[in-house]
Amino acid sequence: MITAAIVMFGVVVYPFFYNVVLSFSNMSLRHFKDRHLIGMRQYAEVFKGKIFYVVLFKTLVWTFVNIFFRVTIGVSLALILNRKIFGRAAIRTLLILPWPIPQVIITLTWRSMSNYEYGSINLFIALFLNMSPVGWLGKPLDAFSACIITNVWLGFPFMMTISLGGLQSIPQELYEAADIDGASGWRKFWS
């Protein structure tokens, strides 16, 4: 117990408070050894600039879009896989594949899939949708969208697995009782 507390202090508590103190100093590569406290001046400069609010907005969009789509896709697929369907085990295996693959491999794969000339996404768009290719990585908004798509694809299997585990832990008797009481599908899901 004491060893765990010492490790937690050394790995979490001390670095956190050390960084808080550093944030009130002029520490940089130029002032590494001769740093001194300057107070709230750096925070005032950050909040004065426009870039902070742009980054804050993009962070909020990133967070809300990713959470919404990860939860929506994950829970929807869990509801489908909770039913008796043909090939359920194979479908579950295919859907969970993005989760255990290392993120570096996924990032490189999606980067190549987003290539303007040879990427499989643009080939699909050209062949099946008769549209011109999209420069996914050429413009900031398109690159941001491509990153969101990749992150959602990477994250929905975890939400699907958690939701499916929760759905399968509900006793079947509760669903039978809800059917007898005349509950709708939405009411059974929600309650």
* Total E-strand runs: 0
Instruction: Give the distance, in angstroms, between the N- and C-terminal Cα atoms.
Output: 41 Å
- pLDDT < 50 stretches: none
User: Which CATH first-tier class of the largest domain would you pick?
Assistant: Mainly Alpha
Whole-angstrom Rg: 24 Å
Structural class: mainly alpha
CATH homologous superfamily caption of the largest domain = MetI-like
Please tell me the total number of domains. 2
**Oligomer status:** single chain
CATH architecture of the largest domain: Orthogonal Bundle
Give a structural overview.
The protein folds into 2 domains: 1-48, no CATH class; 50-190, MetI-like (MetI-like fold, Orthogonal Bundle). 71% of the residues lie in helices and 0% in strands. The chain contains 9 helices and no strands. The chain has helices spanning 2-23, 41-48, 50-81, 88-96, 103-113, 120-128, 140-168, 172-180, 185-190.
List the keywords:
191 residues, mainly alpha, MetI-like fold, 2 domains
Write the layout of secondary structure elements.
Layout: H1 2-23, H2 41-48, H3 50-81, H4 88-96, H5 103-113, H6 120-128, H7 140-168, H8 172-180, H9 185-190
Task: Briefly summarize what is shown.
Helices cover 71% and strands 0% of the residues. With 191 residues, the protein is mainly α. The protein folds into 2 domains: 1-48, no CATH class; 50-190, MetI-like (MetI-like fold).
